[in-house]
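R.M. (postdoc): so does anyone remember the format we settled on? I'll just put the structure tokens first.
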């Protein structure tokens, strides 16, 4: 604790803090010319100079991450999900299969999109790979179970609509996560496709 106190009291640290405060004050004066930033500061209670610096740092981080994000997003999208998919295959429970099957469908869709439209995507969304990496983490991490959420809210309703149009039926059984109900739905689907 004493060494941290000594560092804070060091003349070089004090001089650096004074210089930083001076430049932040100058930036605040310059940013005061923009009414939108002043209104933002009043609404959020975040000093406009700090919000501006935070935005610049965020852009820098997005740009830096995006430089190496293509291989990183593919490694993120493959390594842990492959391991967890194998665990799901080996487990007797069926509800984790929905998570990983849906994950691979979504991950495959992104890779398919990149295979023919990457230049177009990058033109309209320059930090695509950084956002893709965050999205992939949301899909796969057990704390979020994003693939399951995506399945229940987007993939399954879209598939049910297409299936109803091709089969001429309008029934759409509810999405369930319990293994016994999932097995029943799986058996119904297998029976329907065998007819």
């Amino acid at each position: 604790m004493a060494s941290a106190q000594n560092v804070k009291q060091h003349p070089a640290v004090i001089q650096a803090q004074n210089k930083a405060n001076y430049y932040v004050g100058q930036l605040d004066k310059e940013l005061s010319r923009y009414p939108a930033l002043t209104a933002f500061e009043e609404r959020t209670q975040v000093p406009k100079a700090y919000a501006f610096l935070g935005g610049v740092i965020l852009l820098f981080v997005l740009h830096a991450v995006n430089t190496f994000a293509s291989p990183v997003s593919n490694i993120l999208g493959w390594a842990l999900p492959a391991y967890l998919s194998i665990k799901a295959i080996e487990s007797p429970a069926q509800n984790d299969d929905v998570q990983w099957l849906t994950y691979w469908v979504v991950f495959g869709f992104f890779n398919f999109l990149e295979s023919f439209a990457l230049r177009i995507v990058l033109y309209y969304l320059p930090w695509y790979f950084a956002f893709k990496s965050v999205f992939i983490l949301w899909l796969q991490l057990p704390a979020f179970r994003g693939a399951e959420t995506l399945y229940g809210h987007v993939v399954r309703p879209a598939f049910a609509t297409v299936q109803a149009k091709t089969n001429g039926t309008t029934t759409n059984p509810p999405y369930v996560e319990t293994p016994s109900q999932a097995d029943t739905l799986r058996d119904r689907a297998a029976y329907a496709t065998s007819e």
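R.M.: ...and that's the designed sequence above, right after the tokens. Also worth knowing: The chain has a mean pLDDT of 80. The chain has two domains: 12-65, 68-194.
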